[in-house]
Amino acid sequence: MREVVIVEGVRSAVGRRKGMYANTRPDELAALVLEELVDRAGVEKSAVEDIILGCVSQVAEQGGNVARTAALIAGFPDHVPGVTIDRQCGSSQQAVHFGAQAILAGDMDIVIAGGVESMTRVPMFSNMQGAKPSKKLTDQYEIINQGLSAERIADQWGFSREQLDAYSVQSHERAQQAIRNGYYEQEIVPVEVEGENGEKRLVAVDEGPRPGTTSEVLGGLKTVFDENGVITAGNASQMSDGASAVLLMSREKADELGLKPKARIVARAVVGSDPTLMLTGPIAATRKVLEKADLGIEDMDRYEVNEAFAPVPLAWLNDMGADPEKLNVNGGAIALGHPLGATGTKLLVSLLHELERSNGRYGLLAICEGMGMANATIIERL
Question: What are the percentages of helix, strand and coil residues in the chain, rounded to 5?
Fold first, then answer.
């Protein structure tokens, strides 16, 4: 049976919205990551059979199939195609799944999967152009924003404001410790950016983590979505800019090229979930992918569950009976940011490096998605 392996993975550092990438086009940022990926792997650009990128707001500089434009900017030959997909926050994780499926089917041997999002230059919801949901949809489902969904999850699972803020402080502390330890250095490609005055500098450190983040500081923030609620800017993911990608191959092709894969993809799953609660999908997706892999949560050495809002990983921990010491051990999106289309492969790259660092075997990635969906992936370090 064919096997899909991850040969290499890289990402940009994640920038705050209106931060270090404010003057960097997302198509050019994605191109830098694509070029670095094949350079590190030692693979000819001409050998890549498809480039699949996730991107949520596919307008302006992210419109016109940003996967294709980024590939051309990066100097890939014009015979290498590209396609851009939108599975909301899990878009680049879905890109990995689609790439893996193409390889397993025997259609391809070498695929790049990744994602990009500039929430600075292409604001969230700009692709909607002010459109409202169809009445045929709202007649069937209560459609609310994700912040209110997070409020309902916190209420349903009984999480207090103090619990959410404490989790968020931990995210910042873990991220800052990881940066101090140099854990992210190997996976990040330095990017030259231009400041407001035209000066240029290299950036290679995530911009999101805030020193001095304490429960007292977060406790002073106002709630955003419900005056009497618990969700604030401090216990939600940050709007961010970034790009990421992984190089997928059939095991046979990697062997033929003399490449040493970093990991294999063990199992993939995608589920739909309640579109009102919206963010609970990772629980069902995790159960499904574990069943497919014939493994238990106790077999996982590390898990990354995207911190869209603090109640999401906390509800996942509660229902999965998982070990909090294995979850998002180097910080998550609350501290490091959430560049929508890029987050899936960003987290996959970090999970891969963390398994190598900790000598772990299995890693699990799960991401909640808009309108009630979730992807889950299990990888095994080789």
Answer: 40, 25, 40
